[in-house]
# Entry
Amino acid sequence: MNNSEYEKLIDDVPDFPKEGVVFKDISPLLRHRFHDVIADMGKDINWDEIDLVLGVESRGFILGAALAIRYEKGFLPVRKKGKLPPPVIGEEYELEYGTDKLEMRVNKEKLNVVLVDDVLATGGTLQATLNLCEKNNYNVKAISMLINLKFLNSLNMDNLHSVLTYE
# Structure
């Protein structure tokens, strides 16, 4: 599957969730090419060195869980504030349209992980998740994004994999 075929299946929704933001609706893409998307999201990752997949709320749950099943790894969600039972650790972050807080269950075991989310925009959610991993004994070996909105961020990470990049 080439990227132009994927791009045709992504709807741009202007002024959502806030005026000035163009939301990338991946629902049509997942409806028609979910299996292909998951294959492409996992193809550049060395799965032999991965213990666990972390999916970031909420569309990262869908993509991350599918990757975990495909590569026979465990899955854990990174949730928004107040959605997980204690004990949790949290990290506040800036979005392109406000602020929020992510949390994850406290972990004591050192594990190698893949972070999974749908869209990388300004990088606030990713940075908050990376900070949580660092505080929580998770070594981030790879980051898998369906879409990287490169024009909104200046992240240059060797372990960042994205299926689609918008310059």
Summary: Helices lie at 3-8, 27-42, 59-70, 124-135.
